[in-house]
Amino acid sequence: MRRGRVIIMVAVVMASTCVAQAFGRFTWGVVLPGARDDLLSGSNTVAGFFGTVNVTAYLLGTLFVSWASAKVTLVGLVRLGLTISTVCLGIASFATTAPLLGIALFGMGLGGAIIWIPAPAIGARAFRPERAGVAVGLVGSGIGIGIVFAGQLATFLGRSRDAVEMWQLVYRIEFSIAVVVFVGTFIVLKPQGQRPAANGGFGGFGALSTVRAWIPTTVAYTAYGFAYILVMAFLVARLKDDAGFSSSQAALMFSLVGLAAAFGGVSLGALSDRIGRRITLMGAFTMYASCGLLVLTGRQPFVAIASLGIGLAFSGGPALITGHIVAHTTSDTYGPAFAAATLSFGVAQMISPQIGGLIADLAGSFTPVFMLSAAVSMVGAAAASRLPRHRT
Length: 392
Prior knowledge:
Layout: H1 3-39, H2 44-68, H3 74-93, H4 98-116, H5 119-124, H6 132-158, H7 163-188, H8 205-208, H9 214-241, H10 247-275, H11 277-295, H12 302-327, H13 334-363, H14 367-384
Helix pairs in contact: 1-2, 1-3, 1-4, 1-6, 1-7, 1-9, 2-4, 2-13, 3-4, 3-7, 6-7, 6-10, 6-12, 9-10, 9-11, 9-12, 9-13, 9-14, 10-11, 10-12, 11-12, 11-14
């Protein structure tokens, strides 16, 4: 494949993951305070439940992909997921009731899973096998770029509007971008030479069991799913409610997370190509735990440093796990295998925001939420230590 064609294709896949994850899922962390006060009666518990609605749909999306991967090509799945995500971004842009917002968040979670599972393989297989870590990291960096955009957009809009007025405008702008990306997938991404995957067994676990060290890999991904969302969903609220940050200051820290995330997948992926995924993933989990605790200082420059570290580990962790699965599967087994691994990840992130919101309301602080995230991250580091010691 010609280099120019590869660059354009990877750029479109990056943009698709940006819409699926940064816009459709992680923007909720930025707009949560405004949406909470506008439609959810100011309740962190209800806001956490809405986060749970989003990740529950993500879980259902993984089940769908494990079934649909035997019937639809990887490119076809990306197009389908982007259709759902784009429509539901539009719904969120004009939602006037909590139930309608919930429907939109549900659809964005569903579409996010349908896009994210096939996207890394499309990117990785456009590169040479020895550069798979970089390729997967590039695809994931689209999420970081989108988070930067969402945070900076909220910061800019927050200078002239309060949080209640601002949150839907953020979604409206993202919806406009999603429409452009949607058109781009039909122009650039072609399923030439692709075929649906072979049957991967119930829920894809038959295919997953062929992956080397699949149990610790799945445990690590599950720990990541529980730990990361506690920080991503409540970082802005923690800084505003507990540390006295303004809306624009808190959104700026979220943008720093996204800025680092834009480079985290690529940098840690490249590092893993040199020293191995095992030690790199252990470091990523340890970094996430340490930086989550550093946020609790509530003081600068520690919060800014922590935000950068969180972003690096946030995008680097799943890129490393995905790269391991890509390296140990074929075109026939990747789709159902990664869907099965994502299933446990989806369960963890489904229950995580609800638990976090409840803990915050009971404790009157987000401190125990971030401490829980750090503890679970270290469980992930322990699981990562069981991955193969060689570099692939």
